[in-house]
Amino acid sequence: MSKIKFKLNNIAYTVEENPSVRLLDILREQFDFVGVKEGCGEGECGACAVLLNGKLVNSCLVPLGNVHNQEIMTIEGLSNTLQGQMLTESYSKEGAVQCGFCTPGMVMASHALLTENPHPTEEEIKIGLSGNLCRCTGYNMIINAVKRASKDGEGLW
Asked: Which one of 27, 61, 87, 104 is at 20 to 30 Å from 39 when CA atoms are compared?
């Protein structure tokens, strides 16, 4: 057991835990952040995506010990920001949500993309979302949601 300190959604925490436990499990079980989903458990689907120091990562691949003195943002934290609200609204308006399983990871990937590139091309959007799988909506509506967020959120990114 180790004491691991980190900021989670802008709040400082210390947990005493095995440093090899997956970040995904801590987020879901200790913090009840269930927007972070386990899909594949192998870093292939993006359902567990979070921002670690502003960079998109799959939390199923991150040992808790790697987040010591780092900053983590989940979909729950992002949804409290103007950018998160803009993305949620854009996804809704474009019909980019069906079952909702992939949506948190897609929104996190969209945020990471728009933070790096506020005006991405369609090809850049496809590349930015490429680590996230969706089996319901098809990707056209999701791509359109990112385009809308880029346009409607001018100045937020």
From this structure: 87
Q: Is 7 exposed, middle or buried (0-12, 13-18, 19+ CB in 10 A)?
A: middle
Which fold does the domain 2-74 belong to in CATH?
Ubiquitin-like (UB roll) (3.10.20)
Q: Is the pLDDT of residue 1 over 90?
A: no
User: In this structure, which long-range contacts are made by residues 87-95, counting pairs with CB atoms below 8 Å and at least 24 apart in sequence?
Assistant: 87/111, 87/114, 87/145, 87/149, 87/153, 89/152, 90/145, 90/146, 90/148, 90/149, 90/152, 90/153, 91/142, 91/145, 93/145, 93/148, 94/141, 94/142, 94/144, 94/145, 94/148, 95/137, 95/141
Instruction: Report pTM.
Output: 0.93
In this structure, which amino acid lies at residue 147?
A: K
Question: In terms of CATH architecture, what is 81-152?
Answer: Orthogonal Bundle (1.10)
Which residue in the block uniquely carries the two structure tokens 């210390």?
A: 14
User: Domain ranges in the chain?
Assistant: 2-74, 81-152
Return the bridge partners of 101, or none.
Answer: none
**Amino acid letter at 41?**
G
Q: What is the pLDDT of residue 130?
A: 92
Domains 2-74 and 81-152 share a fold: no
